[in-house]
Amino acid sequence: MATSIYGKFTPKDSAIMKLATYSLPRLNVSRTAFVIGDYVIDLNSSSRYYTSSYGDQELRNTEYSNFHAPTEMHALIQGGNHSMSHLDEVFKHFSRLNGDEMEKLRKESDFVHKLDEVKIRAPLRPNKIIHTAGNFREHAKEGSAADWPFPIPEWISFLKNPDSVIGHDDIVEKPDFTNQLDHELELAIIIGKKMKNVDEEDAKKGIFGFTVFNDITARDLQREEMKNGLLNIAKNLDTFAPLGPVLVPYKYVKDPHKLTMELRVNGDPRQQGSTSKLSVKIEKIVSKYSWVTLNPGDMISTGTISGVAAFRKPDPTPFFLKDKDVLECEIEGIGLMRTGVKNA
Known about the structure:
By secondary structure, the chain is α+β, with helices and mostly antiparallel strands. It has two domains: 103 residues, Fumarylacetoacetase, N-terminal domain (SH3 type barrels, Roll), CATH 2.30.30; 215 residues, Fumarylacetoacetase-like, C-terminal domain (Fumarylacetoacetate hydrolase, domain 2). It contains ten helices and 19 strands. The strands form four sheets. A seven-stranded mixed sheet has the order 7-6-17-11-12-14-8. Strands 4-3-2-1-5 form a five-stranded antiparallel sheet. The chain has a five-stranded mixed sheet with strand order 9-19-18-15-16, with no helix packed on it. A hairpin with a 7-residue loop joins β1 and β2. 49% of the residues are buried.
């Protein structure tokens, strides 16, 4: 089932909480989980196991785990600090188990699975996706050098269609009306609190965590749309928003402004960079776009790093995505999201 979510910059670090949404084979039911090493541990069931075995008497009931360790990611995010405090306890307990102990629990329970036994889905489908651009100035500079006909100033933004979200090991469908399918590796910021018109300090407090995002774009369609000042179809077609593989809470990310980023196509590094190259801080991005009410489960992207296909010289044609390509999108400490490409 699921391929590895670890890569060159994301080792199997059991100290980092990785929240996932998964499903079992032949069951079209998605549930939240921890991913620890090569194991996927159901969040709600592991909470029940922990509280019944180690928790205070008043916590040993189904309602407590249903509230603080819900089976759906939006509900988990909305649980706020109380839910995260409980999840910290549960996660620490299971992350201390060695391989033999984890394997024994897997065989004796129905809530611990091997990674390759489950389907890892997009961690969530955001309520709204605010896409920002121009925050990595190297991307803007490469566009100018490649004679891209439209400027890439700072603080560009547009909305992305949540229905275009797919997850780890899913397929990007290439329509037959585009010959210039491109990739854009970005850090995705997941909102944890309701906010509006907040300053940078409150914006930082309102971030729940981060995941990996690939802003798939049909460049030929984009050129035509932007002649009229629009940017819609080229970035919003079905499957054009790969997201995942996991969601890492902010407190488990050492420094979101020092994360190595790399996108590979068939093993070939195409985009290489770091969040250290952002021209603005992440909290400033969130503050800037809190002109609209931000709700738990909303997403704001950072914009992409340099290396997109459209700006390759002298001829970008060989670098556009094609049928049977395999993309690996990786951000240090968060994970590796793998997607394929096929002709629609």
